[in-house]
Structures are given as C-alpha cells and as structure tokens.
Specification:
The complex is a heterodimer. Chain A is an alpha+beta fold. Chain A has one domain: Thiol Ester Dehydrase, Chain A (Roll). Helix content of chain A is 19%, strand content 38%. Chain A has two helices and five strands; from the N terminus they run E-H-H-E-E-E-E. The two termini of chain A are 17 Å apart. In chain B, 40% of the residues are buried. Helix content of chain B is 24%, strand content 35%. Chain B is elongated and about 55 Å long. Chain B is built from three helices and five strands, in the order βαααββββ. Chain B is α+β, with helices and mostly antiparallel strands. The chains are: A alpha+beta, B alpha+beta. At the A-B interface, helix 1, helix 2 and strand 2 of A face helix 1, helix 3 and strand 2 of B.
Chain lengths: 130, 140
Amino acid sequence: MNTALEGKIYEPVTLEIDAGFVARFASAVGDDGSFVPPTIVTAPEIVAGLDHLVADEDLGLVFSRVVHGDQEYEWLRPLRVGDVLVVESTIESIRFKGGHEFLTLRTEMRDAAGEMVVVARTGLIVRGES
Amino acid sequence: MSIRFEDLTVGLDIPPLAKVVTPEDIRAYAEASGDDNPLHQDDEAAIAAGFPGIIAHGMFTMAHLASCLVRWVGDPSALKRLRAAFRAPVYMGETIIAGGRVKSLEPSTRTVLLDVWVTVERGGTTEWPIKRSEAEIRLA
C-alpha cells in the first residue's frame, strides 16, 4: 500500500438510521428490534470507509487478501431511530510488519447538530503473498 | 431486568450467549450491513482464500458479542465502548458462544470494564473468533 496516503480523509457520507434499517439489522443479528443495535454503525462505517479504501486506486489495497484484524467502537451517546449521521473516515496509519501490511482506519460519526456520536477504529491486515 | 452496579464483583462471569451460525444468517447480515465480501457469500471464493467454505463476518460475531452484553446489562445505552480482536474464522453450522468477565469496577463513574470473548468448539479444541477483547459499560 501507498504509505503517502496516511492522514487521507475521505469524502463524508450521510446516512439515516431509519426504522426499516434498524428492523433489518436487528433481525440479522438476532436482537428483538426494541432498541437500535449498537453495532448497526458498521453499515455507515463500510460505506464511508472500506468502500472508499477499496475504490482508491492510489492506495493499492488488494481486497482479496484483506483480513479484519481488530475493531473498536466508542459510543458517545446512544443511537436513536431517526439519527442522521455524517460519517467521515481517515487513514490513521499504514505499517509493514512480518511480510504483512496493516492499515488502521478511524471513522467519526456526527449527528445533524454536529455532535460526535460514534468513533470507530478498524484494523485491516493485508496478508502477504507467501 | 437490569443489573445493579452494587451487585457486581471483579471476576464475575456474565451469562454466555450461544448461537448457531447459518448461511441464512450470514446472507441477512451481508444485506443489512452492506458488507458483500465474497468470502462470506461464495464458497469458491472462500476456498480460494484457504478456507473450507464461507466464513461469518467478523462483525457478525462482534454484533453477537454486543447482543450478549446488552442482554446482560438490560440497557443498550450503557455500552460505551467495545473492542474486538478477531483471531479465528467461524464456519457455517458452528455454535458461537459470547462471554465475558468483570475485570475492574470504578464506583465514582459506575463504570465496569470486562474481558470479553467469543469461542467455538471445533474438533475437540476451543477456538477464539474473538479473543482478549474489552468492553466498557457505564451504569445509571
């Protein structure tokens, strides 16, 4: 991967946590739908982060060798149905170690009022060709 | 039903939550999350990557861990932070078991730190799809 892209900020994506989305996601993860599943934010994170990484020709991420190593979410307030999240991803670091590449992506999600709702951090491992 | 901070002690195990992972679950998760990586949908792609067949999304397993924590706490808004380290794949038909143990208690902020994990029994050994991970819960 191109380490010059450390610090790159991708175009933010806006996504509403509407009732239908909550119902679908809750059903998929086995929750009863009476609350917004905390990890529903994986969906906006993929659109604002991973999808940009995969499409970024300057980065050179080989998606077929990507493994999800680590994931962290910090919820600064509970998610509510009707929240409109503005989601922005930044390449925090790109490292090489033991023949593999490691990319850390930080994604911030703010509500319509600009308040931070969720901070996500994703660690991707691109396995080396052995 | 909700837990009370005063009832917790360091070393307490939370009730584990088990789930059999089916291809239908993984298809529904791919659609709901937008993660359409072929490793989770296409046996040929998974085999080409060195797996015996499609594997569950790490985030599907992490969502199950979050469900386990929310059911224990009884209040989804109490979950403040969750970190997962993905250390083993999950295959179709396997049973994932989420669990956790209270690691520390901070009375001034009513914050609970837990070691959390997800295990699978495979061929007589315990595998750790999520290992040595951490959750932070703040009780009202």
